[in-house]
């Protein structure tokens, strides 16, 4: 069904790698609502075709979809030949902290080669506007203050996943400095959660989920028997880790605003780093309690050991996002819990 709030202004084609994935699919919807023509590149290894039909249900549009692995340079090149892209938003990457500690090569190979291939094509086809899916993980474990600004010292990454994001940002910066035509925004998002309020798209982990929200909602629905909380003796409000959970709708909106901002810049050679969060920290136990209150479901949990690679406490200073992009989170963590739960119940009945 068409969204009555759609803005009809005409914009160009945007390649969205990983566009069938969690944040990618919400960004595709947001791009369409803002008049862009997204083209999804995704090999569906960590995403599902039903997300593509969910996007169609929300937007009423068939979005061009290319089933391509971003590590396959030649296939990617053909996509760049087919469309006159005015921008690229690059999501396609592995993203589980714990798995990256166990399988570092898998992470380095996929996340770095994928990024290199995308950038190589941007240069060859003179696509100037590039938005990178970075992460607060680049800050590593913040020393002293737990609120990080974009100028906070980058500590050594806590995991190979985090390192792929640090290296990714460096590659982009080096390239921007050498090619005057490229402009880039690195969006360092904190913990994206929730789902589209229509429940037509949301997070669809393949196999066992690793992130907290799908673990909680799957436990609520009965797919998982018990949650293991990774550490209860940390130096935080209640001993459990603290994160800045930001609604995926807000994260999607940030990508469109970043792209828009890049398009308006007349200077060459721009590389920016922007935190995308709410500015508020929530502990694991608080998140579980929010879920129990909203859903009426009791969650079984046990206290386990800290997860290797995990940061204890981190949340965002979001002043720069507001100043530069006029972006700020509109949804709360409770909205995210409601939407994630609606989505979980919907996929149970599919
Ligand atoms: C990390 C990155 C984040 C990135 C995300 C992608 C950091 C600080 N954050 O998020 O930027 O977008 O990976 O996947 O590196 N937890 C449990 N039990 C569970 C699952 C999680 O207690 O079964 C806890 C974790 O210890 C953590 C919190 O829940 O404190 C959130 O974990 P998760 O959802 O996996 O995301 P991060 O690892 O924080």
Largest sheet: 7 strands, parallel
Number of strands: 15
The quaternary structure here is single chain
Shape: globular
* % residues in beta strands: 15-25%
- Total number of helical segments? 11
SSE-based structural type: alpha/beta
Q: What is the terminal-to-terminal distance?
A: 19 Å
Strand order of the largest sheet: 3-2-1-4-5-7-12
* Overall average residue pLDDT: 94
The ligands found in this model are:
uridine-diphosphate-N-acetylglucosamine
Characteristic terms for this protein:
350 residues; alpha/beta; 7-stranded parallel beta sheet; two-stranded parallel sheet; 11 helices; globular; disordered N terminus; binds uridine-diphosphate-N-acetylglucosamine
Q: Gist?
A:
With 350 residues, the protein is an alpha/beta fold. The protein has helices at residues 22-33, 49-59, 73-82, 97-102, 104-124, 160-178, 212-221, 248-264, 284-295, 319-325, 333-349; strands at residues 13-17, 37-41, 65-66, 85-90, 129-135, 147-148, 183-189, 191-193, 227-230, 242-243, 245-247, 270-276, 282-283, 301-304, 315-316. Residues 1-8 have low confidence and may be disordered.
Describe the protein in words.
- By secondary structure, this protein is of the alpha/beta class.
- The strands form 5 sheets. It has a 7-stranded parallel sheet with strand order 3-2-1-4-5-7-12, with helices on both faces. A two-stranded parallel sheet has the order 6-15.
- The chain is 41% helix and 17% strand.
- Helix 1 (22-33) packs across helix 8 (248-264), helix 5 (104-124) packs parallel to helix 6 and helix 7 runs parallel beside helix 9.
- Strand 2 (37-41), helix 2 and strand 3 (65-66) form a beta-alpha-beta unit.
- The radius of gyration is 19 Å and the shape is globular.
- It binds uridine-diphosphate-N-acetylglucosamine (UD1).
- Uridine-diphosphate-N-acetylglucosamine binds at residues 95-97, 135-137, 162, 190-191, 210-212, 215, 227-230, 241, 243, 284, 307, 310-311, 314.
- Uridine-diphosphate-N-acetylglucosamine is lined by residues 95-97, 135-137, 162, 190-191, 210-212, 215, 227-230, 241, 243, 284, 307, 310-311, 314.
């Amino acid at each position: 069904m068409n969204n009555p709030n759609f803005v009809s202004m005409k914009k160009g084609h945007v390649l969205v790698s990983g566009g069938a994935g969690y944040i990618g699919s919400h960004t595709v919807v947001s791009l369409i609502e803002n008049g862009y023509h997204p083209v999804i590149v995704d090999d569906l290894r960590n995403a599902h075709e039903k997300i593509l039909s969910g996007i169609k249900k929300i937007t009423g549009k068939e979005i061009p979809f290319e089933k391509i692995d971003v590590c396959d340079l030649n296939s990617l090149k053909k996509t760049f030949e087919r469309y006159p892209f005015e921008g690229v938003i690059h999501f396609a990457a592995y993203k589980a902290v714990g798995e990256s500690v166990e399988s570092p090569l898998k992470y380095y190979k996929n996340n770095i080669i994928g990024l290199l291939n995308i950038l190589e094509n941007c240069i060859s086809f003179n696509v100037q506007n590039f938005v990178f899916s970075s992460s607060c993980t680049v800050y590593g474990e913040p020393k002293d203050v737990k609120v990080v600004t974009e100028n906070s010292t980058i500590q050594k990454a806590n995991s190979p996943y985090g390192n792929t994001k640090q290296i990714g940002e460096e590659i982009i910066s080096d390239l921007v400095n050498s090619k005057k035509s490229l402009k880039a925004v690195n969006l360092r998002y904190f913990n994206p959660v929730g789902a589209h309020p229509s429940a037509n798209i949301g997070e669809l982990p393949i196999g066992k989920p690793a992130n907290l929200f799908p673990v909680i909602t799957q436990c609520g629905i009965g797919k998982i028997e018990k949650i293991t909380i990774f550490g209860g003796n940390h130096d935080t409000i209640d001993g459990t880790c603290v994160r800045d959970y930001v609604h995926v709708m807000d994260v999607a909106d940030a990508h469109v605003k970043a792209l828009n901002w890049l398009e308006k810049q007349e200077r060459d050679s721009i590389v920016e780093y922007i935190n995308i969060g709410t500015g508020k920290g929530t502990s694991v136990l608080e998140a579980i309690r929010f879920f129990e209150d909203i859903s009426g479901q009791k969650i079984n949990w046990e206290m386990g050991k800290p997860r290797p690679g995990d940061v204890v406490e981190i949340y965002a200073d979001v002043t720069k996002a507001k100043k530069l992009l006029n972006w700020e989170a509109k949804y709360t963590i409770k909205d995210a819990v409601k939407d994630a739960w609606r989505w979980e119940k919907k996929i149970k009945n599919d």
